[in-house]
Amino acid sequence: MPLPRPHHQDVLLASSALLGGTLLWSLGLYTQPGQELLPSWAALVPLVVIAVQELFRRVLPMTGLLVGTLALIADQFTVGSLVTVLLYTDVIYAAVVYGPDRAARRIPLVAGLITVASTFTLLALTQNPEGLFLGVIIGLVTLGPATTGAMIRNHRDAAEAARLRAEQIALLAEMDRVQAVTAERGRMARELHDMVANHLSAIAIHSTAALSLGDPATTQNALGVIRENSVAGLTEMRRLIGLLRESGGDTEPAAAPTLAGLTALVAQARTNGTASGLSFTLNDRRPPGESLTTPVEMAAYRIVQESLTNALKHAAPGEVRITLTQAGETALTVRVESPLGDQKGPRAPGSGAGLVGMRERVALLGGELETGPVPGPPDGPAKIWCVRAVLPVPDDKEPPA
Questions:
Q1: Coil, strand or helix at 170
Q2: How far is the CA of 365 from the CAs of 114, 142, 260, 370, 393, in angstroms?
Q3: Which in 218, 288, 327, 382 has the greatest CB count within 10 A?
């Protein structure tokens, strides 16, 4: 396995230390000038070893600590080099800063124990203050760099943790932004579909009738309905565009549709459903003067609107019944029944987005939605298509206007 490439700062440190130590040796500046066990040049061997291991202080810190300790011990049997001792302090510092977490916790503790033990041992052997002075030097060589390295590592770990927290916060903020944008796009899609689909369906039905029938009176009536729905659809589209363009909130937003507008909505459906043989009946069984929160009333209005649109597209000739009931102050029930069968008149295509929009509206309020064919009443068709929505009514109802 090839050795990792040394950092350029470590190369500079090792080179400078080696040159400086060699210069001090050549000038005869030793830490133990009276040492005669080995020739003076032997002090260069530990110096070269510890300087070479400095090249890998970042990538092999624990190996460097072992080699540096052996080099420092060997230096004690020579005339000694001050640079060797200084490099050993950096070896301890690098082991704490760049080594594993376990070593970073243990090295300062071991250095402290060595300092205390050496101090008391030297005091006991020398019986004079010189032992205390030597203990302080040992502390400066071992405990000092270990403590400094621990402080630097703690600051570095804290900065890394703060960076990770900032990244997590930014990620959560981006997720919230994406969810908000997605929810807003879904709301806009529901509003656009509910406001315009009813008018476009009527336009499609009556334009097909105008093209397929040769009766001038029927054609004239169909064109009138087409124009009426085109103008209404354009008005609704402009209202939605105006809401989207609002930036500072200086203009008052258009009022959201409420259940009070169902009478006009049903009257419009009667006009649009004439060509298909449909009639519409609204039966509001709620207590008089009862007012609901804006989200509930808006959802109920849109569900009725979408159900009437689907009836214009798919229902067989007959009566479409809209029933509103409210069980005390707990829930509002919206029920729309339309004849199920083959439609004789022109038919407008459907995309299924309306049912999806109704489900989303009911889900946002925590309600229930049921759609599908059910047996018809005794005096009506055998099967009907029923849309039944149960919308919870919160306690904080809006006061009557």
A1: helix
A2: 70, 68, 20, 15, 9
A3: 218
List the one residue out of 67, 60, 70 whose CA is nearest residue 94: 60
Phi, psi of 268 (to 5 degrees): -65, -40
- 143-212 vs 82-98: helix axis angle to the nearest 10? 30
Its pTM surpasses 0.85: no
Contact 143, 117 (CB under 8 A): no
Query: What's the confidence (pLDDT) of residue 398?
Result: 47
List residues bridging with 253 in a β-sheet. none
205 contacts 346 by C-beta, under 8 angstroms: yes
Count of other CB atoms within 10 angstroms of residue 38: 13
Instruction: Fill in the DSSP letter of residue 396.
Output: S
Question: What string of DSSP letters covers 14-63?
Answer: HHHHHHHHHHHHHTT--S-TT--SS-GGGGHHHHHHHHHHGGGTTTSHHH
3-state secondary structure of 182: helix
Q: For Cα atoms 320, 325, 328, give the angle at the middle one, nearest 5 degrees.
A: 175
Residue range 139-169, pLDDT digits in tens = 888 889 999 999 999 999 899 999 999 888 8
Tokens (6 digits) for 160: 């890394």
Contact indicator for 308, 266 with CB cutoff of 8 Å: yes
pLDDT at 368 over 80: yes
Query: Do 335 and 396 form a contact (C-beta atoms < 8 A)?
Result: no
Tokens representing 364? 């946002």
Architecture of the domain whose range is 172-245+259-392: 2-Layer Sandwich (3.30)
Is 75:46 a contact under the CB 8 Å cutoff? yes
C-alpha 124/C-alpha 132 separation (Å) is 10
Q: Are 285 and 327 in contact (CB under 8 A)?
A: no
72 CB-contact burial (10 Å; exposed 0-12 / middle 13-18 / buried 19+) = buried
Query: Backbone phi, then psi, for 251, in 5-degree steps?
Result: -95, 145
For residue 250, name the pLDDT band (cuts at 50, 70, 90): very low
pLDDT value, residue 400: 44
Separation between Cα atoms, residue 31 and residue 25, nearest integer Å: 10
- Mean pLDDT rounded to a whole number for the chain: 81
Every domain of the chain and the residues it spans: 8-164, 172-245+259-392
